[in-house]
Write a structure and sequence with these properties.
Layout (H helix, E strand, L loop, with lengths): L1 E4 L8 E5 L1 H15 L5 E5 L15 E6 L5 E5 L3 E6 L1 H8 L10 E3 L19 E5 L6 H7 L3
Parallel strand pairs: 2-8, 4-6
Antiparallel strand pairs: 1-2, 3-4, 5-6, 7-8
Length: 146
């Protein structure tokens, strides 16, 4: 999984980029976390993305169970953090589910935006992007040679 800030100077959303299979692994880890008594989980990101090397990377994705609205934020230590009630987090993680081989994207905050009191209006906007080239930098390089 790569977590990148689209463009510099900043004028784009933060993107979580992986293959459909990679996002499924993240979904499975987050679903297991939500079913556990643990309060937080942190998933390390892979660093600079070969698909968008000019976009600054973040170091991790953290999910925290709270008793409040869903809130997504970028923390100063390079962590993309999503916090909120477990029922809202369960809706949020559905954005990590893609059909095998999908080349698509989802906006996870939209999954809770229409629930009264579900989304903190200060939340960052995130894009979960599926691209099978994310798992295979050699194939991407071979297919994109000039």
């Amino acid at each position: 999984m790569f977590i990148v800030i689209q463009s510099r100077p900043r004028n784009g959303d933060t993107m979580i980029l992986d293959s459909a299979a990679g996002h499924r692994r993240t979904f499975d880890a987050l679903a297991a976390f939500l079913a556990s008594p643990e309060r937080a989980i942190e998933v390390a990101a892979a660093g600079t993305c070969h698909l968008c090397p000019d976009y600054p990377p973040m170091r991790a994705f953290r999910m925290v169970k709270t008793g409040d609205k869903l809130h997504t934020e970028e923390l100063p230590d390079g962590v993309l953090q999503v916090s909120g009630r477990p029922d809202l987090l369960a809706r949020y993680i559905e954005a990590f589910r893609f059909d095998p081989g999908a080349q698509d994207h989802h906006h996870p905050e939209q999954r809770v935006a229409f629930i009264p009191g579900g989304l903190d209006p200060r939340s960052a906007s995130i894009i979960v992007e599926a691209d099978d080239y994310a798992d295979d930098p050699e194939r991407w390089a071979a297919d994109n040679r000039e």
